[in-house]
Amino acid sequence: MASLKTETVLNHSTRVILKGKKQNVEVPATCCGTWSWGEKRPWGYTEERDLPGIKEVWNLLNKEKIGFYDGAEGYGPLENERIIGKLLKDMTEEEKGEVIIATKWLPFPIFPGRLWPVGIVGALKKSLERLGVKQVDLYQVHIPVFLFYGIEGIAKGLAECVELGLTKTVGVSNYNEEQMVKMYDELKKYGVPLASNQIEYNLLRTVPEKSGLLAACHERDIVPLAYSPLAQGRLTGKYNSKNLPTGRRMYGNQPWEIIDPLLEAMKEIAEKRAVPISAVALNWVMCKGAIPLGGARNGKQAGENSKALGFRLTNEEVERLDGLSVEGNTLPIVQAG
């Protein structure tokens, strides 16, 4: 198994361990973020237009043996898990065994019956129904919201999910260091490891690195999962100050006079290595010791993202990009970590 902290080249066969109480889960060094699968805002999802492309992504990544997908009940909402469930339904049991599925619980009162710890178990059972599986590989708390109970109650609910065999591992998302360490300590009381913390981390938001959150993850063998590693398309090379992205894209929303010089440096590195600019952005995340969750809505995007595997930026290249990076923003909930 590879360690995200070592200076090695991560490739398609690389596997990273998510720690569990009863069993660990071996995952690829990249993950496919599926926020756009079923989500109308900001992605404008329609089944007729988008489902064929999603199937391309699914087939390509599974063929390359890097089928690791991160979804959530809150995406859609609910439609995301239904889409993944439909894709799984068309697979053989052997094929399903090679796919890694992660989903998330949303501790927010947009759904009934989830404002107590018991709601975590019930929510996961509903997610499993939509996915058409008996167990997920990773179940995560989507945001650090504590309406009627604290981290202690959430930890109890997550531990019960593990004991019931509904998930192999558990994680959190958007937790800052203090929240994450407290969850780690609470889960330990049940003998359950905190497997991961999913955080917004990219060249336009290096807060997790500067705050010490990444180091705190590595010290505890908590795997950092970096969502929005392409800053909602800003780091793909598709956009620039003269060709702006459309829609509401809050992640990585920095002035283009800052982004353009960064993209120029990324382009030079990408051309030298004969890889897409997006692959450079994702590889930078891996060099920092995190698994990037690159989103993809069609086979072309998925293929470009997968090219982040098989090479490693030099220390000089990383330092050059670091010098052009931005610390970014911190908000109480979705960008707490």
From TrEMBL:
<dbReference type="InterPro" id="IPR050523">
    <property type="entry name" value="AKR_Detox_Biosynth"/>
</dbReference>
<dbReference type="InterPro" id="IPR023210">
    <property type="entry name" value="NADP_OxRdtase_dom"/>
</dbReference>
<keyword id="KW-0560">Oxidoreductase</keyword>
<dbReference type="InterPro" id="IPR018170">
    <property type="entry name" value="Aldo/ket_reductase_CS"/>
</dbReference>
<dbReference type="InterPro" id="IPR020471">
    <property type="entry name" value="AKR"/>
</dbReference>
<dbReference type="InterPro" id="IPR036812">
    <property type="entry name" value="NAD(P)_OxRdtase_dom_sf"/>
</dbReference>
<dbReference type="GO" id="GO:0016491">
    <property type="term" value="F:oxidoreductase activity"/>
</dbReference>
<protein>
    <recommendedName>
        <fullName>NADP-dependent oxidoreductase domain-containing protein</fullName>
    </recommendedName>
</protein>
<feature type="domain" description="NADP-dependent oxidoreductase">
    <location>
        <begin position="31"/>
        <end position="324"/>
    </location>
</feature>
<dbReference type="Pfam" id="PF00248">
    <property type="entry name" value="Aldo_ket_red"/>
</dbReference>
